[in-house]
Each structure stands twice: as C-alpha cells, then as structure tokens.
Amino acid sequence: MLQVVPAILEKSFNEMVEKVARVKPYTNFLQIDIMDNTFVPNETFRDAARIATLDATLEIHLMIDKPALYFQQWALPNVQRLIVHFETIGNMEHDIALMRTSGKEIGLAINPETLTYEIKDYLDMVDMVVVMGVDPGFSGQQFQKDVLEKVKEMKKWKPELLVEVDGGVNMYNRDMIEAAGATHIGAASALWKAEDLGTAWKALQGVE
Ligand code: DX5
Fold first, then answer.
1. Cα–Cα distance list, 96 to 76, 91, 173, 177 (Å)
2. Which of 65, 166, 175, 196 is catalytic?
3. Do residues 154 and 163 make contact, with C-beta atoms less than 8 angstroms apart?
C-alpha cells in the first residue's frame, strides 16, 4: 500500500499545528516544506526550534541552496528524514556523507527536468528518492505525469528503492503513481482542500 505523507507548506506555525492535528486520526508522519527564497521563489515558516515542538514524526523537505551548510539545524529529535535536492548539492559523495552524520535518513529529491542517469550512481547512498511531480515551490500545481517514467526506470534498476512522488498528487492519479512503483506519495492540496479529509485520505491510500 502507498504510504500517504501529508505535506505542510505554510508561512505560519499555527497553521502547521492545526494541520498536524487534522491528520492525527490517520497518521503521525508528515512532511514539512522548507523554502527560503533561494532554490525556489517562495518562503515558508522555518523556525526549527518551534518545528521541533510539533507532535509528529517529520520528514523535512529542504528546498534551499547549499543544504550541506544548513542540514544540522534540521536534525531535530522529531525528524526522521531529511530530503535534499540533487540540484542544490555541490559534491554528492562529500555532501551526502556529511549529511549522514546527522543520523537521519536522507531522501534525494529530483525536479521534473532532472534525469535518472544523473543520480543513478548515488542510489545506494540514500534511503529514498523523491520524484517531484511539479516544479517545487508551490502547492496546487498540475502533476507532470511524464515523471512516472523515471520512477519505473529506477525501480527496474533497484526494485527495493523507496520512491516518494511529491507535487500534484491527487486521488485521480494516485493509481498510476502506485502502478509505476512508487512507495510513498506526498500530498498537500488533495488533503487540505478536500471537502472531507477522511474521505480524501482513504482515496489517496487507495482504500475503498
Ligand atoms: C512542492 C512541494 C510539495 C507541495 C505539494 O513545492 O514540495 O510538497 O507541498 O503540494 P500539492 O500536493 O498541493 O501539489
């Protein structure tokens, strides 16, 4: 079954707390989007000390330049996984090894225009690949379904690879994402803008 990861892209801490509470009946594992107007043209709430007080287990999606300089502040007790963008990393071997010293799982995210061969040599160095279905920066964009070819290709290379598809995921495209071999889906608007969160949750999971 696909693991659904609610994604929080917010400018206010109160909104974060509210969203964690809203999905509490379904999951305790969420993604927090961190943007600082460098890698993407948007900013989110990013006071790590307050995010550390969220009552949830988190993956932190760092949409920032030079994550190897800043990852330490995100190695919080309630963080399980740090997701960093391939496009922001200077030296993969060096920077991933450095970020591994955090003791956190490392997810490697790729933008829609980044090709699989660019990361092929690094799949064994990370715990997960995050395939972006949209250009990162904003919620509510349309899913670029061509990215599923990348999921299929990487799963051929490494069947046990954990692959999260993030951006533009909804109840209508979740089946093709699962069929491509993804193990996780990140979703924001499909959950937060749904009329009924419980119904949306089940639809994303693929449970009737
Ligand atoms: C895209 C973010 C996603 C985003 C998903 O910039 O990385 O995590 O929150 O939003 P939706 O599900 O609305 O596309």
1. 18, 8, 32, 27
2. 166
3. yes
Give Cα separations from 193 to 5, 15, 96, 197 (angstroms): 15, 14, 35, 8
Residue 1 has pLDDT above 90, yes or no: no
Q: Say if CB 56 and CB 78 are below 8 A apart.
A: yes
DSSP assignment of 122-147:
GGGGSSEEEEESS-TT-SSPPP-TTH
pTM over 0.90: yes
Q: Tokens 């979703």 identify what position? A: 187
Ligand 1 pocket list (CB less than 6 A) = 7, 9, 33, 61, 134, 136-141, 166-169, 186-190
Please say if 55 is a catalytic residue: no
Architecture of domain 3-205: Alpha-Beta Barrel (3.20)
Beta bridge partners of 33: 61
Work out the average pLDDT over 128-133: 99
> Which atom of ligand 1 lies closest to the CA of 140?
13
Q: How many residues make up the chain in this entry?
A: 208
- Residue 49 burial by Cβ neighbours in a 10 Å radius (0-12, 13-18, 19+): exposed
